[in-house]
Design brief:
Radius of gyration: 27 Å
Largest sheet: 5 strands, antiparallel
Structural class: alpha+beta
Strand order of the largest sheet: 4-3-2-1-5
Strand content: 15-25%
Number of domains: 1
Order of helices and strands: HHHEEEEE
Shape: rod-shaped
Distance between the termini: 75 Å
Number of helices: 3
């Protein structure tokens, strides 16, 4: 019986215990608040959030360029007039249509005051990649519900524009005039 070769029960139990410990460590590293999977999801969300901001900034720059080009030829140009503001909204819609990153869906809405004069172009990016609490560790600490909004404010003079990102959708009252029914455009990827 001394020549029998094999594994003892004690060695088998020790091996199983070591494997269970290693599996527990691996699972803890993959999941949890600081796990690899959680960090990858946060990184994906932050990327989608920043991509939406970048795309809105590009649309804003296109609007600024369009206003400047018109003012170079016509000093009486007014970006807030009905025709010009609709052309700017179309420009923004086309610019955002070219970007469909992370399965994003864009909504572009022309904002008007009670007199029908355009005040801004509201942009909303809805993406499954943007998680609740995205950028929660940054100084701005926005919390999003899978969407992020920005607005291109048209100056009352109609000669310039400004841009704000991560605005609250509910704080903007959208007023449309009866003569335009195409003020809300959804951009499909």
């Amino acid at each position: 019986m001394k020549n029998q070769k094999g594994i003892t029960l004690i060695a088998l139990v020790i091996t199983i215990i070591v494997l269970l410990i290693l599996a527990g460590i691996a699972i803890a590293m993959l999941t949890g608040d600081n796990g690899i999977i959680t960090n990858a999801q946060k990184a994906r969300s932050n990327t989608a959030y920043r991509e939406a901001d970048e795309q809105m900034r590009l649309a804003y720059m296109a609007v600024r360029t369009e206003i400047a080009a018109h003012l170079a030829n016509d000093t009486s140009y007014d970006a807030t007039s009905n025709t010009n503001s609709q052309a700017l909204e179309t420009l923004v819609t086309k610019d955002l249509k070219g970007f469909a990153g992370n399965g994003s869906e864009w909504t572009v809405t022309l904002e008007k005051d009670s007199t029908g004069k355009a005040t801004g172009i509201f942009m909303k990016c809805k993406s499954a990649s943007i998680l609740i609490g995205t950028e929660s560790e940054s100084p701005l600490a926005p919390t999003t519900d899978g969407q992020v909004c920005g607005i291109i404010d048209l100056a009352s003079s109609g000669r310039t524009a400004s841009y704000r990102f991560d605005v609250d959708e509910s704080s903007h009252e959208l007023t449309t005039t009866p003569d335009t029914d195409d003020t809300n455009t959804t951009v499909q990827p």
